[in-house]
Amino acid sequence: MMTDITQPHDRFVKILLSDPVKAGVLLRERLPKEIAELLSPEPPILVDGSFVDEELRIHLTDRLFQAKTITGRPALLYVLIEHKSFPDRRTGWQVVKYTVAWWKQWERENPNWEMLPPIVPFVFYHGASEWHIPDEFLALVDAEKGWRPWLLNLRFAVMDLGKIEDRVLSRSPRLRAWLLAAKYATRDGKQLEIKDFFVELLTEVPVDDFMLIMRYVVETYRRYDEKDVREIIRRVYPKEEENMMSQFAQSVIENTNPKWAQMVLQKGRKEGRKDGRKEGEVHIFRRLLQGKFGANLPAHLEEKLKSASLEEIETWTDRLLNAQSLEDVFRG
């Protein structure tokens, strides 16, 4: 059984939405105006956990955020991330199920409640086919027309990246590069066409973001070969070209495109490339760890990290996305 973080699309969007600043910008830009304009300016707080059914986690994941309105009321912003290449007509049912599940969890944590917080559902979709599914649950219910006012309904906002023009994906330069990468990961035929604009956006992101985005590109962009990836790195961070390519060679390239691996590994010793890959994984892990827990590692965990194998670092990185403490990350 695949875990909920093994797919490259899933990992990429989860990392994106684990950054409260990027998540806050995205939600304020893409939620309906009447909702977004009443949200307070503070970044939302990520809530750990997921209620997505195990069998759906290959193409579906979610994120829940705590937020406040400008009047001080609490609110929950629920993001359902759809990785299929086409819309799922049962999305409305999934939104209802998971919204109720989050409310039930909130009730357990607040047994003396008097009023429930609102949960605003938001669907993040980057499939190749245009979203054409109704944005409400009742579209799935076979009921008499006159019954509708008496039946449970729930509307949800949808962001279909394919309907948004590239230059207005976001007003934030850092977020725009992430969204462009996600948009064209499912649009093979246009990946080469947007390469120059992609480079333009990548020059606006820091090197840590660049590494994460390019790793995703290597994993998902079928029209990019080793030459294209080298060109992008050379145009944005030329001094990092060999270091980055060596990391990609052993991590994702070898699994998704054997020809890439052969071409890159011919340029150096295989064991040296593996060392480079470990350095890259440690760098990404430290960045995510700092962003989530905001503190340096204790000395005993620092020593554990230094002596860890590549496989252990990858396992800890996967755990980090849903961990509530350092102990959750380094258990075992």
Outline:
This protein is α/β, with parallel strands linked by helices and 332 residues long. It is built from 14 helices and five strands. Helix 4 links the parallel strand 3 and strand 4 (119-125).
List the SSEs and their pairings.
Blueprint: H1 8-18, H2 20-30, H3 33-36, E1 45-47, E2 60-68, E3 74-82, H4 91-109, E4 119-125, E5 157-160, H5 173-184, H6 195-202, H7 207-220, H8 226-236, H9 241-256, H10 258-265, H11 270-293, H12 299-306, H13 310-320, H14 326-330
Parallel strand pairs: 3-4, 4-5
Antiparallel strand pairs: 1-2, 2-3
What profile does the largest beta sheet have? 5 strands, mixed
Share of residues in strands: 5-15%
Would you count the extended β strands for me? Answer: 5
| Mean pLDDT across residues | 84
Instruction: Tell me the span between the first and last alpha carbons.
Output: 21 Å
Query: What is the 3D shape?
Result: globular
Radius of gyration: 21 Å
The spatial strand order of the largest sheet comes to: 1-2-3-4-5
Count of alpha/pi helices: 14
User: H/E element string?
Assistant: HHHEEEHEEHHHHHHHHHH
Helix content: 40-55%
Structural class: alpha/beta
Low-confidence stretches: 1-6, 268-273
Task: Indicate how many domains the architecture comprises.
Answer: 2
